């Protein structure tokens, strides 16, 4: 018998479990192990072990840990792109054999902050449980969302608000979070006079609170950047063009919370309110119930 016939057969390429890939997607969306653990219904320690297992399988680190959040490095981003394809393919395969129990279309309007902070996880979880329900999403400022709801163009609206009433619409408060002053890591915009700030339109509650606080301090300021979306604000803050009042959860990467030693005025909280049409279909009610599962809470 030849030596080649006696050679030890090569080991097969290891398989990445779908649960590992689902956890990777949750981490990418939440940038937090604890929140990702809630999404995949595991403990934070179990999520850490799953990350360790993925890193062992691919043979390199995929996560960068910061003081307040975690992000994927270049290897993690590459793995994430393939993970999403594999999970979508898995769902597509099963759909050929399993008829979804529910179907329908839900028209959802959401403000920018809710979209960035909560919506990706919410919709991913909802799609996994109700693959036959199509959710069409509009992201806009709260005034436009409210107007679209009044015109019966939306089934569910999620708006930024300060109490249980938004311009005559009764809303249910579901999320609350601290507003903080934020700027570039090691930035100097906060030291400039006049103070360059980034805010949005006159009807924006974050703008009102910030400007009233600065005026009460008699601090000289100028509006250096206007953006209706947090992504635009974060870009300006990262470039050290301005500072801005934003939710604490939006402080990550190169955008950080400005310490109290800067002497900036205290800010309030930002809230998200929910409105559901009075005659919801079964599909609409299912998504509303999923949103309710968030429960009112104040983010740290």
> Into which percentage range does the β-strand content fall?
15-25%
Architecture per CATH nomenclature, i.e. the level-2 architecture of the largest domain: 3-Layer(aba) Sandwich
Let me know the number of strands.
Answer: 14
Question: Averaged pLDDT, please?
Answer: 86
List keywords for this structure.
single chain; 300 residues; alpha/beta; D-Maltodextrin-Binding Protein, domain 2; eight-stranded mixed sheet; two-stranded antiparallel sheet; 40% helix
Give a structural overview.
This protein has 300 residues and is α/β, with parallel strands linked by helices. The chain folds into 3 domains: 18-95, Winged helix-like DNA-binding domain superfamily/Winged helix DNA-binding domain (Arc Repressor Mutant, subunit A, Orthogonal Bundle), CATH 1.10.10.10; 104-171 and 275-299, 3-Layer(aba) Sandwich (D-Maltodextrin-Binding Protein, domain 2), CATH 3.40.190; 177-270, Periplasmic binding protein-like II (D-Maltodextrin-Binding Protein, domain 2, 3-Layer(aba) Sandwich), CATH 3.40.190.10. The chain is built from 11 helices and 14 strands. It has helices at residues 3-6, 18-30, 33-40, 44-58, 74-95, 112-117, 119-129, 142-150, 205-216, 230-238, 282-292, and strands at 63-65, 70-72, 104-110, 133-139, 156-161, 165-166, 169-170, 172-184, 195-199, 221-226, 244-247, 255-257, 269-276, 297-299. The strands form 4 sheets. Strands 3, 4, 5, 8, 11, 12, 13 and 14 form an 8-stranded mixed beta sheet that branches. Strands 1-2 form a two-stranded antiparallel sheet. It has a two-stranded antiparallel ribbon with strand order 6-7. α2 (18-30) packs across α3 (33-40), α2 (18-30) packs across α5 and α3 packs across α4 (44-58). The longest helix has 22 residues, at 74-95. Mean pLDDT is 86; it is low at 296-300.
